[in-house]
Amino acid sequence: MITNNGNGSEKGDVLLEMRGLRIEGQSDEQWHEIVHGVDVTLRRGEVLGLIGESGAGKSTIGIAAMGYARPGCRISGGTIKFDGMELTTADEGVKRKLRGSRIAYVAQSAAASFNPAHRLIDQYSETPIQHGIMSKSQAESEAKELFGRLKLPDPDTIGYRYPHQVSGGQLQRAMTAMAMSCKPDLIIFDEPTTALDVTTQIEVLAAMKKVVHEFNTAAIYITHDLAVVAQMSDRIMVLRYGDVVEEGSARQMISEPQQEYTRDLLEVRSYRKPEAEDTSGDRPLLEVSDVTAGYGNKVMILKDVGVTIHRQRTVSVVGESGSGKSTLARVITGLLPPVKGSTIYDGEEWPRSFKERSRDQLRRLQMIYQMPDVALNPKQKIREIIGRPLSFYLGITGSAREQRLKELLEMIELPHSFADRLPSELSGGQKQRICIARALAAEPELIICDEVTSALDQLVAEEILKLLQRLQDTLHVSYLFITHDLATVRAISDEVVVMLQGRVVEQGRTREIFKPPHHEYTDLLLSSVPEMDPDWLDNLLAERQARIARGEKLAQTADN
Amino acid sequence: MFQIIKMIVQRLGLGLLTLFVVSLIIFLGVELLPGDLAEAILGQSATPETVAAFRRELKLDLPMHERYIEWLLGILQGDLGKSLANGREISELVGVRFSNTIFLAIVAAVISVPIAVILGVLAALYRNSLYDRMVNVFTLTSISFPEFFVAYILILFFAVEWNIFPSLSNVNPNMGFFEHVYRVALPALTLTLVVIAHMMRMTRAAIINLLASPYIEMANLKGISRSRIIVHHALPNALAPIINVIVLNLAYLIVGVVVVEVVFVYPGLGQLLVDSVSKRDIPVVQASCMIFAATYILLNLTADVLSIVTNPRLLHPK
Prior knowledge:
The complex is a heterodimer of chains A (about 550) and B (about 325).
Chain A: E1 14-27, E2 30-43, E3 47-51, H1 58-64, E4 73-82, E5 85-86, H2 92-98, E6 103-106, H3 110-113, H4 120-130, H5 136-149, H6 168-180, E7 186-190, H7 198-214, E8 218-223, H8 226-232, E9 235-240, E10 243-249, H9 250-255, H10 260-267, E11 286-293, E12 302-309, E13 314-318, H11 325-333, E14 340-345, E15 348-349, H12 359-364, E16 365-368, H13 372-375, H14 382-394, H15 398-411, H16 428-441, E17 446-450, H17 458-475, E18 478-483, H18 486-492, E19 495-500, E20 503-509, H19 510-513, H20 520-527, H21 536-549
Parallel strand pairs in A: 3-8, 3-9, 6-7, 7-8, 13-18, 13-19, 16-17, 17-18
Antiparallel strand pairs in A: 1-2, 1-4, 4-5, 9-10, 11-12, 11-14, 14-15, 19-20
Helix pairs in contact in A: 4-5, 4-6, 6-7, 14-15, 14-16, 15-16, 16-17
Chain B: H1 2-32, H2 37-42, H3 48-57, H4 64-76, H5 90-125, H6 130-144, H7 147-161, H8 177-183, H9 185-210, H10 214-221, H11 226-255, H12 258-263, H13 269-279, H14 282-309, H15 312-315
């Protein structure tokens, strides 16, 4: 029995049927199978969620439904039947006619997937015009109508803007509109909200759910976030390493998962740090006060921001993109000297610019970055990457350095043999561990972690958080955690600082922040985090609608 | 729009500064030439008195910086000085020559730029096909031969064997437009063969470079045809590098044509420069170099402006 998120409508006949789908990818001149015989059946009007970590093959399977394989990939076996047509043997012209008109695609990054050289409305109209379905004026008037339905601001004029002139959440909705332009039978949503803030994600999810429902479009929804997929799908398929782990209705998968791996995915956000005792009376390790800072002289990104961190504590700074949290990190590290305000470290006022700080001051404050790929020099072996701060800050060389290197690798739970590897030979999680070891090598008292888990899969991210916690317990370091992910905040922090548009709107101990009553913005942020409940989105939207109807004012997001 | 004007003004200022530095280099370079100018011109038999008188007349007895300032002030007032060889005003001497050079460059550009861009787009469209390889081999071959060699080969076939075009491009201001074009056909063809490879390969590379972009995949998944993807989705985003290499080649067509002008005895600025160097007609050499430098700077400014005009991010700020 398949239900459409509780509204009970019956689904139609089979629209898409993939049988024994095998896809190969090319690396080092060799073909390796990355999808091992997967079966997918989709009925008209049904939404199927494909979930899994990176490398699970979910995107590859998703676009295979369009008879398309990315460059460097090929469909090597199985059948793909779309509405009675076999796509694996169809020629390119036939498939081109289907794409855009009957099967449409919504990509992960709308910013990258809109052509920067053309106006939004021209890109919207291109599909129906090129497929000979509509005239230009007809396409444009439908575009405006659809922009309005998707709650884009100024639907009549927004289309005449270029992609860089609208925000990320608006672009993602415009892309959904573009996919809808020919009223396709099937839409592939490929991680459409992964790059968005939680508050923006809600609006995009709501918009997508609405049009899919109104036009009775079938959809394949690809994501790594089980809570998100539970909102969107009738049925969920869990994938791992190119194989199906488990498949079932959305409700069943959330309430009674059969497989160990699915249970891991479900429990991934359950880690909680034990509550620490109150140390607010002690002298703080870092005290940043009244900081005002910006790039150039005109716009100030931070306005009168103050943050206090005690020894062996974790303080999280949360906020949407553009709220100034990364700028705060740049001010503390001295990369961006503030216009006004002070940085007092262990009772001593530090120079504003890192250039004027002593080597020992630099040593005491280290940083770990969001993208381990970019933060590690690809030409250096792990030995040099971790060894360099040992010699630079502490003057350790020779066999003592090798000994210390071995200890550091043990701390981050990697074997000593990794010292001879290059970053390219490591996985994402391992690279982030190396970044942690590099920061630890300097023996700092405070480590700033800038979105350190955002680029990682959830299970890997959880391991990293646990590792950081263990390191804090043994080495007594403090962390300043910068993140937009409230699950991470809840898992690891002692105190929380909520930022909005360059100001601190609320701060306090984690338990208190997460308990009502909240500041209205904190409330918006917290209520926007998807929960493992298929009805969560509908209930939340209904509740917000009711509050607006009662005349209450909701907090504004940064997005529009 | 205001930003573009602001940028043009800024670049013009920077261009003037560059031109000033170039003028210093030209002047010092000429100063460094071995031998005495007066003796070189008057010959060894000249008496010391004549040499001294000549030097006074040319103001060569003044210190270097005074002469430089005088020369520079002259240029600023539009006075390029007089030729040493025949005493004529350099501005009128150079004027006709420069317009001839520009004419040749325009004819060559009108032929080569569209061909190069079209060949490049087609090469990107039919990547790694037989056509792609043929175009690459042909253009690379033509750029690998020295200009004078290409010129002589063209003369051999088009002038000597088939007798289609004249081998000498002697033009004069009284000629009609078409007669003029007819006379410069072979030098223009030579230049086309020399510059086409650069522009074509840059067009091809810039487009192919973009084919891995997410918005190209998006266009593919919208069911857009291959040729439209290349022309409509890739080309507009590849314009900046293509424009830059085109303008660089245009600059070459104007300032780098010395050899071709000499081979075809075309009365352009390049040939005047060569003649003047051999005659030690220093003021003409200096003036020609300044004109070349100014052209080069102006063309690069044009490239910058065009790159901005074709980039919506800069043309339509948030």
